[in-house]
Design brief:
The chain is of the alpha/beta class. The chain has 13 helices and 19 strands. 27% of the residues lie in helices and 23% in strands. It binds pyridoxal-5'-phosphate. The site of pyridoxal-5'-phosphate has 17 residues, from helix 11.
């Protein structure tokens, strides 16, 4: 597919400078590649901060008692959690690891919500000990565990996660609201859980939670989450989860954050008590568009298909092989145009194909190649397949760049192996 607007997929503020080089956050991508190596993920810090502000304003302007909790899973590193915290967001943390990174980022545990469909004793003990503000109860075992863990005299505030019974129009792997979902409780069971928590001496039921799925491009489908939780009664807190989709490619037309907030709040005004607190938990739509990944072309092979291979792939972007997510790309030195090629990674699977059919202007060995909209779930699922060193993350702003996550070293690849005995 050919489209001249590939620049429009890069973080806002990206442009082509006087000698034709793509800049992100005011930094030339060739300079960043020279300084930090490739592959490298570049986050436009101003774009990320602006997105956080836009989210908060979109909801608070329409429903003053609302909070935006960044779903850490979309980009669970301390630098991103720090930005979210500095911009006034709460943090959705799924599991002990995200609590640990959030604490290290300086986040206030009282402003965290803990998720998970299979929380362990260890994770709940950590959450309770650190004072995590809200534990989202996903099942009756969560209640059993919390009742054992929370000391008498204390009260752990909880939300109950409800299966909304919505078939979301998205990839099956990231649809979470259908009746057979592994996440949450069906409404009848949720009522029982709410009653149990209300009777507990160490727990407090603050409200209800639901999440329809991820990469949803239809605001009405997101707003369909409101009724199933509102029907459960009157609470202090209604958490509608995340899920707003992003524009990865030219055919994706997600609602703006303002349009999404408008649709959600219109529905909430009909169904939710006026004084209640509303929470949303955007992940993908908070960070995806603020970043791009820069690779180096390692080989160009002309056969039945022209394969342009780069020095990364499914080690730094699993979205393609897991969900078939479509990305676009361009050469930072020659933005836009060109003939269609297939961009592949360096890993030992045919499925390690980053983009099937994308126009590139005369790609050659040694060129840089930039893939926009990689700021969600790519870092999250990065791995060391084929001994890949996980890639660094660089924040770019106003022409300055700073490393926030370093590249794995060869030593990192060996760091968990217990040294073998010497000799044979
Ligand atoms: C409970 C919950 N909240 C929020 C999110 C974030 O979703 P998204 O990244 O699509 O906004 C997820 C993602 O799976 C989730 O499970």
């Amino acid at each position: 597919m050919s489209d001249p607007d590939v620049l429009g997929l890069f973080p806002s503020g990206s442009r082509v400078d006087g000698d034709g080089m793509l800049t992100v956050g005011g930094c030339r991508l060739d300079d960043l590649a020279a300084e930090f190596g490739t592959p490298v993920m570049v986050v436009a810090e101003d774009a990320l901060r602006q997105r956080a502000r836009d989210y908060l304003a979109a909801f608070r302007d329409r429903w003053p008692r609302s909070d935006v909790a960044f779903a850490s899973k979309a980009f669970p590193c301390t630098a991103i959690q720090r930005v979210a915290t500095e911009e006034g967001l709460h943090l959705d943390v799924a599991g002990g690891g995200e609590i640990v990174t959030a604490l290290s980022a300086g986040a206030d545990p009282a402003r965290m919500l803990l998720h998970g469909n299979a929380k362990t004793d260890e994770e709940l003990e950590l959450a309770v000990a650190e004072g995590v503000g809200l534990v989202v109860v996903d099942n009756f075992d969560d209640i059993d565990r919390l009742e054992r863990i929370v000391e008498p005299g204390r009260r752990q505030a909880c939300l109950v996660r409800v299966v909304p019974g919505i078939e979301a129009d998205t990839h099956a792997a990231v649809a979470t609201g259908h009746t057979g979902s592994k996440f949450g409780l069906l409404p009848a069971d949720a009522r029982v859980a709410i009653d149990r928590i209300r009777r507990s001496r160490v727990l407090r039921c603050d409200g209800v939670h639901t999440h329809v799925g991820s990469q949803l491009l239809d605001a009405d489908q997101l707003a369909a989450a409101v009724a199933p939780v509102a029907e459960l009664g009157s609470f202090d807190v209604y958490d509608f989860g995340g899920g707003l989709g992003v524009r990865y490619s030219y055919t994706d037309h997600p609602p703006s954050v303002a349009a999404y907030a408008q649709t959600m709040i219109e529905r909430a005004r009909e169904l939710v008590p006026a004084g209640a607190r509303i929470i949303v938990e955007p992940g993908r739509s908070m960070t995806a568009a603020a970043a791009c990944t820069v690779y180096r072309v390692t080989t160009v092979k002309h056969g039945a298909v022209t394969h342009v291979a780069v020095d990364g792939g499914m080690g730094d972007n699993l979205e393609v092989s897991l969900y078939g997510q479509r990305f676009e790309a361009t050469l930072p030195a020659r933005v836009g145009g060109g003939d269609e090629v297939t961009v592949v990674g360096r890993h030992c699977e045919s499925g390690d194909q980053l983009i099937d059919g994308v126009p590139l202007a005369d790609p050659a060995v040694g060129d840089l190649l930039a893939v926009p909209v990689t700021g969600a779930y790519c870092y999250t699922m990065s791995n060391q397949y084929n001994g890949a060193r996980r890639i660094p993350v660089v924040f770019a702003a106003g022409g300055d760049a700073r490393l926030v996550v370093r590249r794995d070293t060869w030593a990192d690849l060996l760091s968990r192996d217990v040294p073998l005995p010497q000799g044979g």
